[in-house]
Amino acid sequence: AFLSGPSFAKEIAVGLATAVVVASDDRRLADEFSAILSSPEFRVFTSQDVIGLEVGGAVKNVIALAAGMCEGLGLGTNAVTALVTRGCYEMQRIALAMGGRSSTITGLSGVGDTFGTCFGPLSRNRNLGIRLGKGERLKDILDSSIEVAEGVETAFALERLIKTSHRSYRLDLKFPIIFGVVDILRGNSTPREGLQDLMLLPIRPEFLFDSGPDLSGSGVNGGGLRIRGKVDAHALDDDAAEDDSVVLPANFGDDAPELAVSAAVSETGIANDDDLGHRR
Description:
Elements: E1 2-4, H1 9-13, E2 18-23, H2 27-37, E3 42-47, H3 50-72, H4 77-98, H5 102-105, H6 108-119, H7 124-133, H8 138-144, H9 151-165, H10 171-174, H11 176-186, H12 191-199, E4 210-213, E5 225-228
Parallel strand pairs: 2-3
Antiparallel strand pairs: 1-2, 4-5
Helix pairs in contact: 3-4, 3-6, 3-7, 3-9, 9-11, 11-12
């Protein structure tokens, strides 16, 4: 079973209200963990979407690095809110292609955990991003830090995962935030240059793959939904879909476990302030 959600360890330790999700393929096991761990201050919801939960727990740390850079640059609320929202879209595309559920990404272990990590003052990844945005070098930040900002290694793991599992030749347009963060971490661009690159991306519809009510009742799989866009359900690749609706293939191969890099053990033995997602 896997536990994740917006859960800073320091707040849990002093009994502040917290809500998280425990996911397992075995519904009974998830229910058992929920019953054991839940209290009036610590609410544990259940899910069977292990993939979606783990993708959310990994990708949100990379988004938090970018959000921190926005804050370090003094770009204001509009910029950081837009960046986090579009980052969640990249998170969702990865999760769906791996077999996760969009509902998980919109829940506590997806956008919920992302909000906490991107906007919370206790977030190590956000704070590292702030220092990058203010002009410090990554090596100097890491050398002077006593905490682990796991988003750094997660960004590189996601880049390898996407590049080795995707046939598109313009991945920077499909995952501009993830790839932009990697470029900054490598020293290939500055946070301000990364923002400029994002702002100069081609204008297009916010969502290229959407659904709406089908009043005729003849929707996909009899569910009453009309899916707008062309999708190759076997390849799950944007080169096979004219509307760029799906990005990654269903089979990510041996690199998929690298997403688990988001779980780093802190001095207290709890699996990091930003993300309590770890194997039980």
